[in-house]
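task queued by scheduler; priority normal; single chain, no ligands, no partner chains; default sampling; output format set to structure tokens
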Amino acid sequence: MQVEVRVFATLRRYLPELGIGEAKKVEVPAGTTFAELRDLLGLPADEVKIIMRNGLQVEPEDVVQDGDRIAYIPATGGG
């Protein structure tokens, strides 16, 4: 299965080859969870606060589907 992954803000340092907003195409076996994909990409679990699939929030234990557009988002702050 192939999915597209985007990372935002501070998570971009773990995939420095990607430009801003650029997606990484990743091949994963059927049954892969979002947590397993996160680990495969080298993203620290404690830095990922939100996971989106096709614009909807999912849980780390949910299973990735072929063609998913996935975003890993860190906690953000402001003032």
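post-processing summary
- The chain has a mean pLDDT of 95.
- The chain is about 10% helix and 30% strand.
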